Amino acid sequence: MDTVLFITDLHTGSHVVTLAGVYARAAAHNWRVIEIERDRTTRPLREFVATWRPVGCIMECGKLTEPVDTRRFNIPIVYIDPDPVTLRRPCHAVTNDAAALARRAAAELAALRPAAYAYVGWCSPTSWSIDRGTAFRHEIAARHGACALYDTPWQDTFAVQKRLARWLAAQPRPLGVFAANDYAAEQVAGACTLAGLESPRDVAIVGVDNDELLCENSFPTLTSIQPDFKAAGCLAADLLADLIRDPQLPPRRLPFGPLGLYRRQSTRIVNSNDTRIIRAVERIRRDACSGLTAADVLAEIGLSRRLAEKRFRAATGRTILGEIQEVRFARVLQLLRETDLPIGQLAGLCGWESDSYLKRFFKKRTGLTPRAWRAQQTAAPGGRR
């Protein structure tokens, strides 16, 4: 069995999912994968190469400031989202598809029909932030007109929120904002609060990464696009296998796209000024898959059933039970598309009263059984491996 090194800054966040993609393909290539976290060691890369004698290396290092000389170690290397310094030399790489991210963000914001659009970049000039901003502004220009840009470097979050508040207040409203990532989106949300702007009614916000801890604890909760980091790991592993077989392979750059968009409060307009209805919608989005019932929601709203249902339907276009079922159904589709969980486990995980009830509901909505729907998704171009 051959050894492959997976080098990363730290075993956190997207790096964990990417490594899972590498592991998913390692068995097919008869590899043992050794993970090395650069932030946890001071040893130079050459020592790991000498110790493990790998046949190749996958490198996911956002802090890598200079390219590794592959000739020095005599092993092929595939980079994941490499720094522009690395890309100045011909290299094999798997990169986030900025254009696909921009299209998802533009489509989500355009559905709200904003008067104007804007892109808020990362705190320092980085290639991925610049690429996302360029792609988004191009997408907006082609379909909707001009797109404002906020790319002033920043470090202190409160200071940038004050500057952003002034900048947002000067923009046309309603404004659709695409932020470089969820952390930047959180600064936009904080700036809205400082400026007295309501989100999403005045400023709708879309971020990237779907960092659930951050997105769910922001006010408002943040809509975010989740890149398919597992697909990135799979692509990198297969590209490395090709490179091991043919070291003379011309350099390739393979894009990986978004896995999905997770809609939260920052892009969901509820046609109501009643805070009880707004809180009820958010409670359903958050807890529908945890056994929440219509009776629970009615108790929280604190109105008669007839009046609560009337106001809820006017705000959302659905009954309270219909909204709960919609959230549960969306979660079922996500698990079918993104995981290999047995069909029989989905009802319990998504809050349905029984497996048979879920299957009947699913067949009515899609015309397919959950198993057939999953098979169709897997077989589609770009489907899950």
CATH architecture of the largest domain: 3-Layer(aba) Sandwich
Largest sheet: spatial strand order: 2-1-3-4-5-11
Strand content: 15-25%
Shape: globular
CATH topology of the largest domain: Rossmann fold
Average pLDDT for all residues: 89
Poorly predicted runs of 5 or more residues:
none
- Biggest pleated sheet: 6 strands, parallel
N/C terminus separation: 23 Å
The total of helices stands at 17
Q: List the helices and strands in order.
A: EHEHEHEHEHEHEHEHEHEHEEHHHHHHH
Assign a percent range to the helix content: 40-55%
Which CATH class of the largest domain? Alpha Beta
The tally of domains stands at 3
Gyration radius, to the nearest Å? 23 Å
Key phrases:
385 residues, alpha/beta, Rossmann fold, Arc Repressor Mutant, subunit A, 6-stranded parallel sheet, 6-stranded mixed sheet, 50% helix
Short description:
The protein has 385 residues and is of the alpha/beta class.
How are the secondary structure elements laid out?
Blueprint: E1 2-8, H1 14-29, E2 31-37, H2 45-52, E3 56-60, H3 70-73, E4 77-80, H4 84-87, E5 92-96, H5 98-110, E6 116-120, H6 127-143, E7 147-150, H7 157-169, E8 175-179, H8 182-195, E9 203-208, H9 212-217, E10 223-227, H10 229-245, E11 253-256, E12 258-262, H11 275-287, H12 294-301, H13 305-316, H14 320-338, H15 343-350, H16 355-366, H17 370-379
Parallel strand pairs: 1-2, 1-3, 3-4, 4-5, 5-11, 6-7, 6-8, 8-9, 9-10
Antiparallel strand pairs: 10-12
